[in-house]
C-alpha cells in the first residue's frame, strides 16, 4: 500500500473510530481533554507506522491498544510520582472501593461510553457555542478547521473555544456519567438542544457560501441515533430523531444545480428520500406511543414535518392540521419563531390576508428584530395580495439581514420580481 493510500485509510478510520476511542479513554481518565490527547497520540503513532508497516488487520483495535498503553504508562508514571496507589494519578479509585483493572476499564460497552461523552460535552456548565464546538470535535470527528469553517469564525478563535470548554469541564469536575433522576431531564434537554442546533446549521446554514451543509446533518443524525439506542424510553429523543430524519429526507431537493435554494413548495418531491421518510415516521410513531397525551416540542415538530412528508404534492398538504399543531407547539414551547411559522401556515390555510395580520402583530417582537425570515414571510404574503411594491421593500429588508450568500441571492431575486410586478401595474 502506498503512503497516500495509508493516509486515506487512517483518515477514514479516525473519523469512524475517534469518538469511541475518546469515549473509552475519558471514562478512564475522567478528563475529556486528556482523553483526546491520548487518542491523538495513537493517531500520530498510526501516521508513523502504517505507511511503513502496512495497515493492521483491525485498525480500530490497533488504535485502542496503543491508546491503552499510553494511558497505562501515564497512570503508572503519575502513580510513581505521587506515590499514592489509590489515586493512580487519574482518580480512578473514585469508581469504587477497589481500583479496576485498567485494561478492563477500557473494554466497557462502546454505546455507554459514547452516551457518557455526549452528556459530558453538552453539560450546561458550558455556554451553548462551546457545547456545539466540543460535541462536533469529540463526537462528530470534525477538525477544528472544519468546525471553524462551519460556524464562520477564525480557526484560532474556535481552537480557543474548544480548549476553554475542556478546561471548564475539568475545573468544574463534571462527572463523566449519564445523570439520573431530575438531573437527567435537565441534562437531556441540553443534549437534545445541541444536537438539533447542529442539525439546523447543516439544514439551513446561517451564513457562508452554502445553503446546506449535509455533513453537519449527518453528524447530528448519528448522535441522535446513539441517544435512541441508549435512551429508548425517552419520547423526546425519538421525537428529535423523527424530526431530523424527516427534514433530512428533503436535503437533495433543497438545492438546485448551482447550489441555489429551492423552497419547500417548489421542491421536486420525487427527490425526497423515501427511506428516511419511512424511518422518520416510524420514530414519530414510537415517540407518540411513549409520550401519550403529553407531546414535547420535538415530537410536535416531527408531527409537523410528517404533514409535509405524507403529502405527495404541495397541493395535498394538510395546512389545517399544520395550523392546529403550531397552536399546540406555541403552548408547549412559546416562541416568536413558532408564531411566525404559524402565520405562514395560516396564510396557506385561510388566505394571505389572515397570515399577514399575524405577521404584522409580530413586527414589534424584539427577538425577531434581526431575523431575516420575518420580512421574507411578510414579502411573500404581500406579493400574494398583489401589494408588490411593499413586497419588494420587505424582501429588501430580508436581503439586508441575510448572512447566507445563496439565501441572499434568492431574496434579491424575489425583490426584483416583486419590483417588476409593481412596475407593470397601471399607474
What level of helicity do the residues show? 55-70%
What is the average per-residue confidence, as pLDDT, rounded to a whole number? Answer: 86
Quaternary state of this entry equals single chain
Give me the Rg, rounded.
25 Å
What shape does the CA trace take?
elongated
The assigned structural class equals: mainly alpha
How far apart the termini lie comes to 75 Å
The total count of strands amounts to 2
Counting DSSP H or I runs of 4 or more residues, the number of helices is 19
* Low-pLDDT regions: 92-111
What is the makeup of the main sheet? 2 strands, parallel
Placed side by side, the strands forming the largest sheet appear as 1-2
Q: Give the SSE order as H and E letters.
A: HHHHHHHHHEHHHHHHHHHEH
Strand proportion, as a percent range, falls in: under 5%
Question: Your description of this structure?
Answer:
There is one protein chain. The protein is mostly helical. Among the domains are: 3-105; 185-303, no CATH class. The protein contains 19 helices and 2 strands. The protein has helices at 3-29, 32-53, 59-82, 102-105, 110-121, 128-138, 144-150, 155-171, 182-203, 214-230, 235-248, 274-291, 297-310, 319-332, 336-350, 352-361, 373-384, 388-401, 405-423, and strands at 207-208, 403-404. A two-stranded parallel ribbon has the order 1-2. α1 (3-29) packs antiparallel against α2 (32-53) and α6 (128-138) packs across α8. It is elongated. Residues 92-111 have low confidence and may be disordered.
